């Protein structure tokens, strides 16, 4: 089958029919206070939280 040939399956990147667009200014995965609520219970969780910090420099 030719790679340029399209089939009848929907493109998953287009989402489901009826999906509402996401507001660009809404926080992802929580609200403005979510970051303040995150607390690590052990050193491994502390390291994981550091990787999730968008303001932290990459490893």
Protein described:
The protein is an all-alpha fold. Helix content is 24%, strand content 0%. The longest helix has 10 residues, at 43-52. It is elongated.
Fill in the keyword field for this structure.
mainly alpha, 24% helix
| Shape summary | elongated
Beta-strand portion reads: under 5%
Helix content: 10-25%
From the helix content, strand content and strand pairing, which structural class follows?
mainly alpha
Mean pLDDT: 74
**Alpha carbon gap, first and last residue:** 43 Å
Order of helices and strands: HH
Low-confidence stretches: none
* Total DSSP helices: 2
Number of DSSP E strands: 0
Largest sheet: none
Which value, in Å, is the CA radius of gyration? 19 Å
Summarize the structure.
The chain has helices at 34-37, 43-52.
SSE map:
Blueprint (H helix, E strand, L loop, with lengths): L33 H4 L5 H10 L7
